[in-house]
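Collaborator request, handled under Task 6.
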Amino acid sequence: MMTVLVVGVPEGEELERLRSRIQSNPHFQVISHAREAAVALAHARVLLPDITVLALSGGLTADPAALEVFRGVRALDPPCGVVLRTGADTLVAELDGVAAEGSVHVVREGDADGLMRALRTIGLRRASCDPDEMP
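Structure tokens returned to the collaborator:
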């Protein structure tokens, strides 16, 4: 089973929808969620999730807290896979270089199929014991 940390999604209906969608696949379990960067990193260091779903309000470089979480979970050993969940109108071009890094995927908010594809891809990489290499 792959463990998932959800970061940056407010408590309430949106979080519950996201949690429900992730856990609709029996191979994924949301183990925690956090709204703030410091709390998210504390959870990540203790729980060592396989995947972090990180909601971006804008671009990654424009949001210092999101960038801090991104760098923190990627620095874990082994590095945590990341799904960057962007707003429907966010430009994804700035994220191209980040996504090319390996087990980092960009998915637009509301793209449930894209989210599940990204989770499965990261899960396969982690199962291969090398999270940044394709199996």
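The cover message to the collaborator said: "The beta strands are 2-7, 28-34, 51-55, 81-86, 104-108. DSSP finds five helices and five strands in the chain. Please let us know whether this matches your experimental observations."
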